[in-house]
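Example 3.2
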Amino acid sequence: MITDVEMTFQRQISGLNALTHVRELAKIGYRFVGTEGDKKSINYIKEKFNAYGLEVRETPFSTLSFEDDKPFLKILATGEELEGVVPLFSPSTPEGGLVADAVLVGDGQDEDYQKVNVEGKIVILTEETLGYSKFWLGTFADRAARAGAVGMIFIHPMPWPYRMSMEAGNSDLDNRFCESMLPAICISAVGGLKLMYAISNGSCRVHLETKNLSEERDSVIISGLLKGKELPEERVGILAHRDNAIAPGANDNGSGTGTLLEIARVLSQTNPKRSLEFISTSGEEDATPGAWSYCRTHQADLVKNMKALLDMDMISVGSVAKQVERGEWPDCEPIVHPEWLLKMVDDVAAEMGYGFGRMIAAWGVPEEGRFNQIGVPATVLWAADDPYYHSVHDDVDKVNPNCLKAAGDTLAIVSWRLANQ
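Structure, written as tokens:
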């Protein structure tokens, strides 16, 4: 039953306020870890935490950053230039680019390379479903490189390209990348049709040029702490990552960060028994090295004192946001999320007439997975099927403030109950 105090939170939390933060973060643009946009978003969040009277703490970490110039891809027979997006951490082409035949290899498995000669050529891969099963492009690039390919084109099933990653898709950061990489680009289904037309006419020679930079850079995890009045060392965490893979990144993850700031604004005026820690991370838009660093830096304290962690990632576009029951990486045991915490979120939402779903994350999990791995009970609200995911169309006009309101109401009350049990 929602109490009078909790009803006050519900009245105060505003989806429109959260949307204002989303808009400001989207204006910053590219916020990938270690970039100028990351620094601007750090300042924005610290300014808000300070305004709310929270104690601001920073956990520094260093990880691989990525920046790129606009890629170039032309079909030489027709002169058509195709719009594209390069994967995170993809190497650059040689100066002047690659001029080579492009050949279709379908799914890009080992048996596919037994059917076609790709030596010195640029391979074309396709997605068989409307999902993102090839998001982790590293193993596909490694396979193509071993077969002699010099570059890769991926055709997205949507009418716009999206940002993939050249990582292998492993949880273990020591095995983050495969031995071989290739210059790569993702194009839309529309561009893919043009490639298929060129192939149908006998050959498809293309010019591909990319200019990318991958280097180690510094960033910070920002915590805004509201100290509890009775058990200040014990705390409940509410988390959202602020980085994006491509600008403007309104839903991913301006939506989570905007809602985090709105929850912080409202709960900062309360006096819980346990502390509340509002956590803004970066380095999520790859294999979550930011959350990994935070958990390793504070592991003993987190295991002892953090009673639960609530994460928000991409909560306002696509289908209803869902909680992950189990996360799966190919190189570790499944990460099972605690049923008691998932049920608590579901029950609180139902008390207010909201409803969230459940899901199995079959291609990795957001940052709450790192907390579960060290023994901190954690859950996430995640609408993983945003059709504009990692594309330039992830803009503020797509963000539904009512979704921000529902998530904000629910996680504010869940965190309050956990802090006062």
